Amino acid sequence: MSRHQADPALVKALVTPERVHRDVYTSPEIFRLEMEHLFANTWVYVGHASQIPNPGDYLSTEIGGQPVLASRHKDGSIHVLRNRCPHKGTKIVSETCGNTGFVFRCPYHAWLFRTDGSLHAIPYHRGYQDTDLMASEAAAGLPRVGDYKVYRDFIFARLATDGVDFESFFGDSLSSIDNMVDRSPAGKLVLEGAPLRYMHPCNWKMLVENQTDTCHPMVAHESSAGTAVSVWEREEAKGGKKPMAVEVYAPFMAPYDFFEKMGLRVWPNGHGHTGVTTSIHADYSAVPGYFDQMVAAYGEARAKAILGENRHNTCYFPNIMVKGPIQTLRVFRPIAADRTLVESYTFRLVDAPDMLFERTLMYNRLINAPTSIVGHDDLEMYERAQLGLHADGYEWVNIQRLYQPGEAEDVTDVAGGTSERQMRNQFQAWVKYMTMSMTPEGAGLREAAE
Amino acid sequence: MTDITEKDLTDFVYREARLLDELRYEEWLSLYAEDAHYWMPAEWQQTDPRLQVSLMYEDILLLRIRVERLGGNRTYSQKPKSRAQHLLQAPQVDEINPAENRYRTWTSFHYAETRGDEFTTYAGWARHELRVEDGALKIVLKRVDLVNFDAPFGNIQLFM
After folding, report:
1. From B52, B66, B77, residue closest to A193, measured CB to CB
2. Domain at A44-158: CATH code
């Protein structure tokens, strides 16, 4: 049998305040437990309401490897359902987005379901006449997820039937989503364009941790951002305005001191963000007309407050990151212990100038695409870490930068921007959501197996 | 060299691929006009590089950054180095327009990129828009459409 089983004590032993055991990145058994427990107990991002604006619209995705779909019902409500027919298990939809009309029709035997998931009809009715089908779970429609919630058009779901409610799970961390939405003069975002999809040969948590690792850019990205700065310094002498692309690249070379002063905030349940006082997104050129639009929409004081908030990366536990000032959302989809699909989405600020969306797209392609030189730098580091962790002799990963003994866990707090506090925060939440559905019998089973 | 022939155009496309395969990036860059772009769309029959999602849409400055980065001492994603190989179908000439100094070709290709033990192939179509500058053909726009533009790729570090 596997080493860890569903034993909460063994899972807890993988995380200390200052370090984590390599098994959290390399063990297929831990990965399986993450899918079974962590991704069932947490609120996971499903999609954006603007992807399914009309009745009958749907999007399909996955949570922890399980197929789900979100649909827009005729009354305008959104429903998150399991994407499998209760008959034989066939996936009801396979395209990422589409419109199904009034009902979902299983392509295998034409069982029909309304867009709120309820059963509409089963053909060849007499085949089930003398059975208890209609009283069984199979006739209850598309299987439900535990709970789902649409917050300012962002759709989240929790697979587990019982668990932490949406508001308790996210709390004040929703302020980062608020800020991204508020940056639209209309207070509305539209997800526009397909995501950039980038496969990584590493564990999903390495990508999540890297989002708040402010001591790697000036090192790992010296090759890309550093070269961009030096090439531009040569070109600049010839005259001309600093291009948007150089504005995007150059701040990656900011010194430690800049990132330290930028600050970092942690929230309970593993959420957190870098860029409390300022960030690498604070000094982009103004987009003509945009500030005036914001003042007209919100008044000057509120417009300044919204645009003065320049949060860098906000990580929502377990596996997404949003950039409010850039209007991007990245999903780190776990595929296997050593394989992660990153999908990077872009949003248009409704009623804002096109140039903002142009910058959003440029940022995404310069930083998050499989053709991105910044992405190449990062992937190389993740891949080396995934391979390096197989070295015996020392089995731990260190996360104690700016750690102070007695550091409070699972709280709202602000720290220096170069701290690894958010990584520690994530791993505390990791233990909590991994083990909350493990029964003490897990330990018993393991002892029996030994 | 005002009378550009079909052979001039196809020879140009082959020469560009050869420079890339031989990792002669400075010479490759010199094939591009100062206002040129290298574009890899991320949508089917995409029309707009600016307000639609692309994998790449880079001007000469950004291409130069890439070329210099590939040779950098601290470019760890190039330790070991990548290599490339193009297999081109005969380019089709879509336009010979001396009056407007515009020449266009369409080339179906398979492309392989390798690094260390990894070997990845890609397939697609390259479109070249060219013009004559000081007697020589230059690239104004190179557009590379992959057949699976929406697939989850790993690193694509070189040029197709």
Report:
1. B52
2. 2.102.10.10
